[in-house]
Inverse folding.
């Protein structure tokens, strides 16, 4: 082979061919998932230590986790009085000395030979006038000389030390240097983004001269990981678009503008931006597939209605789908209000227009009404229909369905999209999926794969933010119930959300009933209480909700059934019991049930006393509860959530494969995700089959399995 060496070729070279890798090391590497030279050079250090400026004994602080690079001076083993083994090592660097002790790790005596260089990670404590570190994590770094020491993941079990990995990698890179390593990313992209070449990056990630070099290398290699994922998604998106004939909507009518003018408020900047993004998609010949993210109350309905009206304006129909009948009914009421009095252009009509026709279709619409709605959908006299998934079932026909908005469903699957196509005589209607669960934008770009994303990141003006407070234990709760009583005395209403019990709906219902009884007989005695949970029949639920909405109940004790879409403006206080059992997104969603009217609203997050719960941060609070108290911004909370949940990797752990992110993190590399996505569009749009980029194409085939691919694009 000649020319620069590709990942495909590196993948074909067994690590056993490297100098120093004998049968035993080969099987050790293999148990690490390293079979080929490609696996080896893409096994990156997990940290880098600059021995000239960090990791010195003199800088250690008592009781703080820290890393030091030291030389072993002497090692001793003995047995303690309670028959445990204890290995003690004296270690030092140019700045000081320290004692290290290991309990019950007799093999350390053999591991830590005099003169050996090791990296120790642990907490130092003061001991007999000196410093001591007990049971630190030990990395053997051998006799490496460079200023920066890479520390690899290593395994004591298989006897593979970080210095050995470093030596193998160095050998591999030295051998590659003869031919050079191919760089599949277009030079123009690298230049524009200021990215270093791949060969240099691979060298600097493993053997950096400076920390700055290491950072540039990391950025480049992380970019490659993200670019591959985005290329896969963008390629697939473009294929879907090419293969599907959509409706090219006309935008030049008056109709949508008239709707915006009829509103009693100006659109927010975010709404205007979303509407413009959607209209650009609607005008294009391929079907739109867009996600609209917006916090509770950000005004998604107006954007949804605008979308549907663009379809109506061009003589098509629009459909709005909600996840439940109750929500469909709420939407129907809301949308009718918004569209009240709006006339549709109609050349066949004597006056040139006619009233817009909005209908509701759920399983509760029956008999003659149902036949009437179905007939109107089929002959085109129904302009907008609102309902549940029943809308796309067999036997429901549209004359010309132009746009569909799906509320609160993140993953509108392939089958549903196919069903939509069937509804519309060949042309695929444009699709807008709405969600109130904010996902950090960059995560959305990846998680939602081939969807485009619009974000409503601005609330309409004049909202009084919901004040959130934490209450702990019985004493804290007393204040909460006083607050509820005071609010009710002012004519307001309250929600009490009962503890979440994951394992069983039955237990959850029991706990809700218990809470109801406890409050009705105790803390909230004398108030009018209602109970709502998942085991009640639909009629019973409806009755309770209607009563609460009409003001016939002061307090609604409920399970999370109220999470989505319940809208009672007079309800101004929410109490969430055992709040630490909920996730950030869910707490935020629940909290959004208040603060919907003109009155100031409050949310109480009740947790048990600290002594009974494990999960607290340094200030003694549950970190999720603390986040909710600190912020009402759903996007900010989503970022916190991503941070709290740890690394922003792509696939679930069972899914982890070669294609997963090793260096890149959806959490830390938000900017890079965006750049990679833009670059992927640029590359694919200029070269849809990647025929001018064979190495890049080949890398995708090499690194992604079919399973990865279907995981990434299952939205
Ligand atoms: P979402 O569905 O995103 O939770 P809605 O669409 O139900 O939010 O809107 C919440 C409330 O805000 C509604 O009463 C709506 O009329 C109002 N609203 C929407 N857009 C604006 C705006 N630009 N200015 C003022 N109020 C608005
Ligand atoms: Mg809504």
């Amino acid at each position: 082979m000649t020319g620069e060496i590709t990942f495909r070729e590196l993948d074909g070279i067994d690590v056993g061919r490297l100098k120093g890798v004998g049968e035993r090391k080969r099987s050790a590497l293999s148990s690490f998932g390293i079979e080929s030279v490609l696996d080896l050079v893409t096994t990156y250090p997990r940290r880098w230590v600059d021995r000239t400026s960090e990791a010195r004994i003199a800088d250690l602080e008592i009781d703080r986790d820290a890393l030091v690079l030291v030389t072993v001076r002497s090692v001793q083993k003995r047995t303690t009085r309670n028959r445990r083994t204890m290995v003690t090592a004296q270690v030092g660097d140019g700045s000081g000395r320290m004692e290290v002790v290991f309990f019950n790790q007799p093999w350390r005596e053999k591991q830590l030979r005099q003169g050996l260089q090791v990296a120790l990670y642990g907490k130092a404590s003061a001991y007999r006038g000196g410093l001591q570190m007990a049971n630190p994590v030990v990395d053997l770094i051998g006799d490496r000389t460079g200023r920066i020491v890479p520390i690899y993941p290593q395994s004591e079990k298989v006897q593979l030390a970080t210095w050995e990995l470093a030596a193998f990698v160095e050998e591999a890179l030295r051998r590659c240097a003869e031919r050079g390593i191919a760089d599949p990313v277009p030079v123009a992209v690298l230049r524009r983004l200021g990215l270093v070449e791949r060969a240099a990056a691979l060298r600097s990630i493993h053997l950096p001269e400076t920390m700055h070099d290491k950072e540039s290398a990391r950025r480049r290699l992380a970019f490659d990981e993200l670019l591959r994922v985005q290329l896969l998604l963008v390629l697939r998106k473009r294929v879907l678009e090419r293969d599907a004939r959509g409706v090219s909507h006309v935008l030049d009518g008056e109709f949508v503008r008239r709707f915006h003018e009829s509103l009693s408020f100006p659109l927010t900047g975010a709404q205007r931006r979303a509407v413009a993004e959607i209209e650009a998609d609607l005008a294009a010949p391929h079907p739109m597939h867009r996600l609209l993210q917006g916090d509770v109350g950000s005004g998604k309905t107006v954007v949804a209605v605008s979308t549907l009206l663009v379809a109506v304006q061009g003589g098509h129909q629009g459909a709005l789908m909600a996840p439940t009948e109750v929500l469909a009914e709420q939407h129907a009421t809301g949308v009718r209000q918004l569209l009240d009095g709006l006339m549709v252009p109609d050349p066949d009509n004597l006056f040139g227009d006619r009233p817009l026709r909005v209908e509701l279709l759920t399983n509760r619409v029956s008999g003659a009404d149902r036949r009437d709605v179905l007939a109107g959908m089929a002959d085109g006299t129904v302009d907008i229909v609102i309902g549940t998934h029943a809308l796309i079932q067999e036997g429901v026909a549209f004359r010309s369905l132009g746009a569909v908005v799906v509320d609160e469903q993140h993953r509108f699957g392939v089958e549903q999209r196919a069903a939509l196509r069937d509804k519309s005589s060949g042309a695929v209607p444009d699709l807008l999926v709405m969600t109130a669960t904010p996902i950090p934008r960059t995560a959305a770009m990846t998680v939602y794969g081939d969807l485009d994303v619009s974000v409503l990141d601005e609330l309409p003006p004049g909202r009084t933010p919901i004040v959130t407070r934490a209450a702990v234990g019985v004493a804290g709760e007393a204040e909460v119930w006083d607050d509820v009583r005071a609010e009710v005395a002012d004519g307001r209403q309250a929600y009490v959300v009962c503890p979440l019990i994951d394992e069983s709906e039955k237990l959850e219902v029991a706990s809700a009933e218990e809470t109801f009884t406890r409050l009705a007989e105790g803390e909230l005695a004398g108030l009018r209480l209602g109970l709502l949970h998942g085991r009640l029949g639909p009629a019973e639920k409806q009755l309770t909700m209607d009563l609460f909405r009409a003001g016939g109940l002061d307090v609604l004790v409920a399970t999370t059934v109220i999470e989505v879409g319940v809208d009672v403006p007079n309800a101004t206080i929410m109490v969430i019991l055992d709040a630490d059992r909920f996730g950030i997104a869910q707490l935020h969603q629940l909290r959004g049930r208040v603060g919907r009217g003109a009155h100031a609203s409050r949310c109480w997050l009740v947790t048990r006393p600290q002594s009974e719960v494990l999960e607290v941060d340094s200030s003694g609070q549950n970190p999720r509860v603390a986040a909710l108290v600190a912020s009402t911004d759903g996007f900010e909370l989503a970022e916190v959530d991503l941070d709290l949940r740890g690394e922003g990797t792509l696939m679930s752990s069972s899914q982890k494969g070669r294609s997963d992110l090793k260096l890149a993190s959806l959490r830390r590399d938000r900017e890079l995700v965006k750049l990679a996505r833009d670059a992927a569009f640029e590359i694919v749009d200029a070269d849809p089959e990647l025929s001018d980029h064979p190495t890049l194409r080949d890398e995708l085939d090499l690194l992604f399995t079919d399973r990865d691919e279907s995981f990434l694009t299952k939205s």
Residues 650-656 have pLDDT under 50 and may be disordered. The radius of gyration is 31 Å. DSSP finds 24 helices and 23 strands in the chain. The longest strand covers residues 65-79.
